[in-house]
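Quick review question:
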């Protein structure tokens, strides 16, 4: 069977992978935004460069977790994505490499468009951008976020008192999986080939 391994980002997330098929060859933590002071740690995204053990194909995987907030977040998220992309470039990524950006974009807008704007700001244009998931489908249910910060706990309490099944307050599509690269990809049984 499959042997799942996990690379922890040291904060709240990480990347699971099938160690029978993939070998991590480089691992980075990249800042969401440029560091403003030396005293305060920045939130980071985990980046792992994998090699396929069957065909030596290289795939970069970036675990995204952009800043949560109520107002003005679209522009901030473009800046965060641009900064992440610029840091990938500094680590040898060229924009044409097969890359998966996945995680919590904390934005209900189109993830495809959001990533495209981040790439444009960084002057990077991959041959292909494909949204593999979740394209407007609800992926987070606020009523379960009672142990988060105030951005989450107040709406969580409201959604538990007044459940509104189809409201953006109680359900959202903040998560996404975006493929960047130049290969035709196929997904079989939830695996990328």
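Suggested answer, residue by residue:
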């Amino acid at each position: 069977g499959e042997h799942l391994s996990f690379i922890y980002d040291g904060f709240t997330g990480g990347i699971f992978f099938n160690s029978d098929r993939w070998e991590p060859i480089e691992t980075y933590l990249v800042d969401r935004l440029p560091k403003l002071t030396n005293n305060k740690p920045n939130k980071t995204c985990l980046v792992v460069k994998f090699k396929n053990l069957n065909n030596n194909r290289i795939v970069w995987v970036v675990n995204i977790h952009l800043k949560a907030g109520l107002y003005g977040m679209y522009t901030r998220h473009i800046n965060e994505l641009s900064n992440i992309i610029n840091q990938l470039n500094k680590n040898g990524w060229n924009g044409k490499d097969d890359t998966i950006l996945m995680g919590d974009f904390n934005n209900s807008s189109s993830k495809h468009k959001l990533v495209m704007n981040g790439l444009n700001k960084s002057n990077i244009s991959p041959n292909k951008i494909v949204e593999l998931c979740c394209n407007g489908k609800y992926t987070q249910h606020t009523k379960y976020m009672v142990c988060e910060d105030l951005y989450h706990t107040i709406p969580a309490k409201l959604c538990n008192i007044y459940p509104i099944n189809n409201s953006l307050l109680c359900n959202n599509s903040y998560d996404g999986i975006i493929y960047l690269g130049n290969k035709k990809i196929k997904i079989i049984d939830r695996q990328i080939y």
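Why it works: The radius of gyration is 17 Å. The first helix runs from residue 73 to 90.
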